[in-house]
Specification:
- Helices cover 31% and strands 30% of the residues.
- With 422 residues, it is of the alpha+beta class.
- It folds into two domains: 258 residues, BirA Bifunctional Protein, domain 2 (2-Layer Sandwich); 99 residues, Anticodon-binding domain (Rossmann fold).
- The strands form six sheets. The chain has a five-stranded mixed barrel with strand order 9-10-13-11-12.
- α1 packs across α7 and α2 runs antiparallel to α5.
- The chain binds adenosine-5'-triphosphate (ATP) and magnesium ion (MG).
- The site of magnesium ion (MG) has 2 residues, from β13.
- Magnesium ion binds next to β13.
Length: 422
């Protein structure tokens, strides 16, 4: 991608109402565009991150046997009446049609997935099964805030599993728990897992996946050394106590909930009569689990966890581009021609080798280009200037490191490939 052709531009100033790092940097860098409070459009750079995050999630859900589907966002009122949630879920967006029908805009998909999967379940041989989707969700949040962390329209991966026995559900639940930890670690995050009550959903067990950052809304007690955490509201422990898992010292911190998994029991399968013939011939009700990850919130959380005062520091696996190639302009025409020529050759070579590179080939000043490279946060910056060319080199700097070094022009490709693959 050549920056001169990118239709979006960075902005020098942060939005005046930016209350968090993700609100500030994602908008300033034109990763997203705010349409109204809590509603964002995803622009080329931001969408590349979102797609990478979603693909990591897909790989991990596929690896535990999840089957991807895509359900409708528009849902019939009748299903919400069946579960009793039409009047009890305050964040549900309701639509009234000119045909006098009522609809819900999906804030969650139990009301669709339960009868849908249920229609295919006849016997214990049809179980277990797990389906998931990556979809836009709508919630009439009282207060949208913190950039993409709390929106009224947002992305979610939601998975639902169906089981013949409690043991089977619990086994699968643990598999999902481990898969979730992998997802967040691959996204470059240090995730904590809290055991929480299921809230309005269920009396059964549920776990939240929390990332420690001051931008979080949840108060948790977290172990700095392992994934152990508890929600402060329900915790039997207090700050300074020893971590029951590893003996580390628990700290009271703020967390962002990036994922949540629930044992639903038969709450929804009872409502929609999802029954099957068991091995002994008896009729039984299927047990369900549900598992959510906020995909857009996850992108915002990565920014909260990985930024400095100059901008974002994307982890390699989710960065829009691995490499930010910068050609610094010179007033000397011959030098300028050489800089552009060298940069163009390197750029083409990188594309040819399948390296993800964005080239700042704009006519902007050096200061502007360097500030934008820091703001946009690609993991590796490769800079070509009059100064570096005098040494027959490029300046090589990782976003998360302080120091730059010179790399000889003839070694750049090999080193860049090594960097991307390591
Ligand atoms: P919260 O407690 O933050 O309101 P929740 O517990 O209501 O979230 P779930 O129903 O568990 O959310 O949804 C699954 C995931 O979707 C959450 O773990 C979170 O990552 C994400 N999510 C929920 N609400 C929002 C929102 N308004 N904006 C962005 N992401 C959200
Ligand atoms: Mg939740």
């Amino acid at each position: 991608m050549q920056m001169s052709k990118l239709f979006t531009k960075t902005s020098k100033t942060a939005p005046h109402d930016a209350d968090t790092a993700n609100a500030k940097y994602l908008i300033q860098g034109s990763f997203v565009h705010q349409e109204m409070a809590g509603v964002y459009s995803w622009l080329p750079l931001g969408l590349r991150v979102l797609n990478k995050v979603v693909n990591i999630i897909r790989e991990e859900m596929d690896a535990i046997g999840g089957q991807e589907i895509l359900m409708s966002a528009l849902q019939p009122k009748e299903n919400w009446i069946t579960t009793g949630r039409w009047d009890s879920v305050d964040i549900l967006f309701k639509l009234h049609s000119q045909t006098d029908k009522d609809y819900a805009l999906g804030c969650s998909h139990e009301e669709l997935v339960t009868p849908l999967v249920g229609s295919f379940i006849k016997s214990y041989k049809d179980l277990p099964c797990a389906v998931y989707q990556v979809q836009t969700k709508f919630r009439d949040e009282l207060r949208a805030k913190s950039g993409v962390l709390r929106g009224r329209e947002f992305g979610m991966k939601d998975m639902y599993s169906f089981h013949a026995t409690q043991e089977d559900l619990e086994r699968y639940y643990q598999k999902v728990l481990q898969a979730y930890i992998k997802v967040f670690q691959r996204c470059g995050l240090d995730v904590k897992v809290t055991e929480a009550s299921g809230g309005i959903f269920t009396k059964n067990v549920s776990h939240e996946f929390q990332v420690v950052t001051p931008a979080g809304e949840d108060n948790i007690l977290a172990c700095p050394n392992c994934t152990y955490a508890q929600n402060s509201e329900v915790s039997t422990l207090k700050e300074g106590d020893k971590c029951p898992d590893c003996g580390g010292v628990l700290a009271a911190v703020k967390g962002v909930e990036v994922g949540n998994i629930f044992d639903l029991g038969t709450k929804y399968s009872d409502a929609f009569k999802v029954e099957f013939t068991a091995e002994d011939g008896s009729r039984q009700t299927a047990l369900m689990g549900c598992y959510g990850i906020g995909t857009t919130r996850l992108v915002g959380t990565i920014v909260e966890a990985l930024h400095d005062e100059r901008g974002i520091m994307w982890p390699k696996l989710v960065a829009p581009f691995a490499i930010h190639l910068v050609s610094l302009n010179s007033k000397d025409e011959a030098v300028q021609a050489k800089i552009m020529d060298t940069a163009a050759t390197l750029y083409e070579d990188m594309l040819h080798e399948g390296l993800e590179v964005i080239w700042d080939d704009r006519e902007a000043s050096p200061g502007e280009k360097l500030a934008d490279a820091d703001l946009l946060g690609m993991p590796l910056r490769i800079l070509i200037s009059e100064k570096s060319l005098k040494e027959n080199s490029v300046e090589w700097k990782q976003r998360a490191e302080k120091d730059a070094k010179l790399v000889n022009l003839q070694d750049v490709m090999e080193e860049a490939q090594g960097f991307v693959e390591e």
